[in-house]
Write a structure and sequence with these properties.
Largest sheet: 5 strands, mixed, barrel
Low-confidence stretches: 1-27, 221-228
Order of helices and strands: HEHEEEEHEEEEEHHHEEHHEEH
Radius of gyration: 23 Å
Number of strands: 14
Amino acid sequence: MKTGLIMKRGLILAWVISFGFGCDLCAQVAAPVDTTVCDVVKKPEVLNGKIVRIKGTVVAGFDEFVIKDSTDPNCGYPVNSIWLAYPPGTKGKAGPAAMLMIQPARNFAGKLTPAERTPVTLDKSKDFKQFDSLLAQKHEKGADMCLGCTRYEVSATLVGRLDSVADATLGRDASGKIVGFGGFGNMNAYPARLVLESVADVTPKEVDFSKNDDETKGVPIGAPAQTNFDLYAAIAAAQKAADGLVAGPPKDAAQKASAAYGKVGDHPNGVSASYGMANEASPKDEDLGTKDSPDGVLFNCTFNSDRLQQDSLTRAVLHLGEHVAELRNPAPGAEGAPAYILESDAWVVTTVSAASSGQKFLTLPGGYLIWDSSWSAADRNDKMAAVLKDFLANEAMLSQ
């Protein structure tokens, strides 16, 4: 009897294991792999598809929603951060103020192999709600235009699915046409993305804007307020602002940037502009689009209407337009320009257009004052260049 009972119990256990039912005696759920931002950035493809745990600092900037290493933020690579995304349907409040996502069009000429990813379920705990709420708070003090500035950055322990590629560079054929995709986030420039599953140990740090706020206190914004301002109006305003610049390379770049969207009523050119939250990892964004494009590529520009209004929306339109122009029609020899150069060029166009429109000050996320109308003409270029260099390295987390 006893022997028969033991054999029966053994058969039951074997049956449970073979059919994958969980129990204390069966296989346990794998624990997250502990890693760091810099380790992921160094070899992003190693942990592709794995559930990982990372202690880092999250920044929701102008066109960034990223995790940087809390202890060693400059990892020494072209992109020194991991893009952060929520699972589809989260409806979170935090994310980038603006974002360009490049997608293969329905008539894409290259080869596309959609990735198979294990779905992630987000734990919408009290910690997550605090995390999301803090990163969504805008910086609203001071009289300057603070483009996409948020009040806090947040350090936390993040668990989620890591999506990664060995190389996020856009693939091009001999003519320069885009025929390959790979990366994530803004401009598809990030080799790694964390799709969030849970968050803990939330520690906010208020961004120091005190210097900017003191300098701009009591000074009205130079550009006039506008009402009934939508994306069509912002695109038209961007085109008008570009045409009004003094002749030279910045004007040429601004005109190309504003022209990237085409004109209302024109045949679709593969560039779309819409309001929304670009903070979720939607599988459809990595699949073929539903529309054709002249070059087989879609450039989807998303703007957060809560953080970009009136004149700041015009600047954001120009900024993403510059990305589209440089990626779609790169100058000879610049087909593989790194994100650092693309962001630098876009911020130059953005700043010059803001200054020419009468803006007295322009501040970037993190408290970087890139334009001050009181600067002398002899010092302006050097000061803008120095601020932009610091911003790209220390806030945007990009290296040359």
